[in-house]
Amino acid sequence: MKPVQFEKADRLPTEIVFKDPVHDHIHVRHQLILDLIDAKEFQRLRRIKQLGTSQYTFHGAEHSRFSHSLGVYELARKICDHFLRNYPEDWDDSERLVTLCAALLHDIGHGPFSHTFEKIFNTDHEDLTTQIILDEDTEVNQILRRVSPSFPNEVASVITGDYPNPQVVQLISSQIDADRMDYLQRDAYYTGVTYGKFDLSRILRVIRPYKDGIAFQYQGMHAVEDYIVRRYQMYMQVYFHPVSRGMEVTLDRMLTRAHDLYRENKLAPVIPMLEPFFKDDYTIYDYLDLDDSVILYAVLAWTKSEDRYLSELAQMFLHRQPLKSVEFNREKDAETVAHLRDLVDQLYFDQNYFTMTNRSSDISYDYKLKEKAPISLFYPDGEIIDLSEASPIVESLSDNLHGNDRLYVPRELLRRTPPAQQDLPIFQDIYAEFRKHIKNGKIL
Ligand code: NI
């Protein structure tokens, strides 16, 4: 059965809507989509926060991967409708179902505090997304197979970028795709920062299909340009915030300490849901048991650990007293960084667990990027021009890395008020030595 026929047969008698603060309503017209939303692997995304540790800086940012995934689906659905209405010659609507399913499931393999978890336990959310879609025992796979035996493969190949139709791939994964458009709007809404908002409805008017993919009508250039600028600002102000990164670093050090203790058979308590990952012997079903509550329970349990380092790090995370940071320059500050880490050792903390360097980097727009398609403008004569050629603002943000390097240390060393009389003399000395190397939050 071809998808178009399947789609007709699969239509719900009446449309179902989910109320959403960003897109107002999420419209569901197919039983298949409704069943995917109800699948337990998808419901799990309710229990994973979209922005991980950013909620400790922007307290409103408690939205979940569930709401983001619904949002990406809704944007993809709106774009398909717009293509069908305005460009029926250039858009094959039998691609709709695979597009919507890929939009909905693109983050199904995300775990709790992904960034940190993946680094410590060597998991990969993109790999896991594919595995969850393809494994015949998941509910998601069983629902997708109702369309055809090869349909799970087709959906997975859109997400990995291997699907033959570039229009579908670019809708889900390019430098201006449904994923990025949803998370920028959603993250701006929930963090409360207004500069993340761009003119989404205008972009959804000027987006169009053409034979090699997706482009934007040249009249809409400024709306697209604005999206790039807002994206840059969100990275600088929200995603790379030094306190959120400090919480990430603190979690990273806590899990590393727990992992090291586990190897020596000294971890107590062992958290059953985490054990397969400590052993490096896990299945996707172990992975699907993970959510934010597993990590938060581990934090809580380890505050009572007899290991002094583990309990200290767990308390720092629990009470939001993360390691604090100074900015440094990778090329010229290596020696000072090593010296400052030694000072932490001399104080009373092991530098392996209580210091860490952290790099943030993002390229706002890259017209040479291989894995994510660039943004093309479509002119009346059919000519296609790269956005960075038409917009001097985008050009200035193109192709270079934005971000910085930070050294994280125990916060006592960076407190503003110098040690008081009653502080230990060793702390007074080391504090003074530490401060000598720092000015305005940067290593001198
Ligand atoms: Ni996403």
Protein architecture, described:
There is one protein chain. With 444 residues, the chain is α+β, with helices and mostly antiparallel strands. The chain folds into 3 domains: 8-237, Orthogonal Bundle (Hypothetical protein af1432); 240-322, Up-down Bundle (Growth Hormone, Chain: A); 325-444. The chain is built from 23 helices and 13 strands. The chain has helices spanning 3-10, 31-38, 40-43, 65-86, 96-105, 114-121, 125-134, 139-144, 151-160, 166-172, 178-191, 200-206, 221-239, 242-263, 275-278, 284-288, 292-302, 308-318, 334-347, 351-354, 387-390, 392-397, 425-436, and strands at residues 11-20, 24-30, 207-210, 213-217, 324-328, 356-359, 362-363, 376-378, 384-386, 401-402, 405-409, 438-439, 442-443. The strands form 5 sheets. It has a 4-stranded mixed β-sheet. A 3-stranded antiparallel β-sheet has the order 5-11-6, sandwiched between helices. A two-stranded antiparallel ribbon has the order 1-2. A hairpin with a 5-residue loop joins strand 8 (376-378) and strand 9. Helix 14 runs antiparallel to helix 18, helix 17 crosses helix 18 (308-318) and helix 19 (334-347) packs antiparallel against helix 23. The longest helix is centred in the first third of the chain and has 22 residues, at 65-86. It binds nickel (II) ion.
Distance between the termini: 68 Å
Largest sheet: 4 strands, mixed
CATH homolog superfamily of the largest domain: Hypothetical protein af1432
Number of helices: 23
How would you sum up the global shape?
Answer: globular
The total of beta strands comes to 13
Major sheet: order of its strands? Answer: 3-4-8-9
Q: How many domain regions? A: 3
Structural class by helix and strand composition = alpha+beta
